[in-house]
Amino acid sequence: MSDKNQDQRSDSFQGIEDSYLAEVYAKRPITLVKGEGVNVWDAHGNKYLDLVTGHGVAILGHSHPKFVEKIQEQISKMITCPGIFYNDKRAKLGEKIAEITPSNLDKTFLSNSGTESVEAAIKLARKATGKTEIIALKKGFHGRTLGALSVSWTRKYREPFKPLVSGVKHASAGDIEAIKENYTKDTAAIIVEPIQGEGGVIIHPKGYLRELREFCDEKEILLVFDEVQSGMGRTGKMFAFEHSKTHPDIMCLAKGLAGGIPIGATISSNEIFSHLKKGEHSSTFGGNPLACSGALATIDIIENEKLLENASKVGDYFMKELSQFLELPSVIDVRGMGLMIALQTKQRISDYVRSALDKGLLVLTSGLATMRILPPLILLKENVDETIDILKGILE
Ligand SMILES: *Cc1c(COP(=O)(O)O)cnc(C)c1O
């Protein structure tokens, strides 16, 4: 796509949003109105290659025909059904999640977002162990509600809202000794992202997740993996921890799980969940038939269309192509796994991200100097080639 100036992108919706919606987002100046596959369109009909996918939510791309069909079918049947009644789609999803996760993870609590899946994990860990402290990692991100915010790291997100939940300690990522230093007899759990997403696609040193597992077993505390961003095939395996031949006691999922329909899931064992009694946790919208059928359709499409293999193959190609930029003086690092990718620059990243948008490419940032790329799992090599062409023009 050729460069567009601001007049060709601004419209009245932008002023209306700024007037009537809480201005908590640093906005990009386009109004997205339609999506299909790897592309989205703004209100003027300009087309973009979408490597943001709602922060990794639209893992099937936009408006996947089979997904749309399943959702439409469910909408015309039933959208809401509270947890006090049984539901066919919810039952099937519970069973399916148990099937695609390690054998110790056989029970699920359903909610509506990543932060809720973390809240449930924290409550569950406290209740199951009878202890209160949580060890989280520096550079970690787990959400914005007060409990999840307490285990998140970024100062700017935390400081204005103190006091937060007490008993949280942040250890340096990738260092088992730092975990040991923060452990006390009151530690209930360790929560980590198997790959730190918001922190800048930080991949832990080899063996680290297994060391965490061993430490938790030794001390009889719970290991929580927050796979909200890294899960559902993003790294080329269904869950990022599978690359490390280990497993959590509690896993959090959300983002891609229902292909764009809001959902959160906190998954653990029967034994751990047995400590949570009736009435001790719940969610009005959680486990609704629409979200459940969205998740069932998403998992089905990932399996039938071999999207794990595609994410792995196209991800490798993407990394190989990106690595040519390491020769440029403007680029410091490229890293990633599957289709969870980052490019770190010397200069502020926001200028590059803005130039990319002008050329029809949507990407994310992590911090001040990292570009984060979270494409849909249906990405093709030709989409990578298009991306590399645009980035080349910007970075050189
Ligand atoms: C996005 C994210 C969350 C929060 O999810 P929301 O749906 O925005 O509440 C939690 N953990 C991780 C790892 C995330 O990437």
Keywords:
binds pyridoxal-5'-phosphate, seven-stranded mixed beta sheet, four-stranded mixed beta sheet, 396 residues, 17 strands, 37% helix, alpha/beta, single chain
Bound ligand species: pyridoxal-5'-phosphate
Radius of gyration: 21 Å
The total of helices stands at 14
Mean pLDDT: 97
Helix-and-strand structural type: alpha/beta
| Overall outline | globular
Largest sheet: 7 strands, mixed
- Helix content range of the residues, please? 25-40%
> What percentage of amino acids are in beta strands?
15-25%
Query: Which consecutive residue ranges, at least 5 long each, have pLDDT under 50?
Result: none
β-strand number: 17
Cα(first) to Cα(last) distance is 19 Å
How would you write the strand order of the largest sheet? 4-12-11-10-7-5-6
Oligomer: single chain
Task: Explain what the structure shows.
The strands form 4 sheets. This protein has a 7-stranded mixed beta sheet, sandwiched between helices. A 4-stranded mixed beta sheet has the order 1-2-3-15. A 4-stranded antiparallel beta sheet has the order 13-14-17-16, covered by helices on one side. The two termini are 19 Å apart. It has helices at residues 12-20, 53-56, 65-77, 88-100, 114-129, 146-151, 155-158, 176-182, 208-219, 270-273, 289-304, 307-322, 349-358, 381-395; strands at 32-36, 39-42, 47-50, 107-111, 133-137, 168-171, 187-192, 195-196, 202-203, 222-226, 250-253, 264-268, 331-337, 340-345, 361-362, 364-366, 370-373. 37% of the residues lie in helices and 18% in strands. It is an alpha/beta fold. The chain has 14 helices and 17 strands. Helix 4 crosses helix 11. The structure holds pyridoxal-5'-phosphate (PLP).
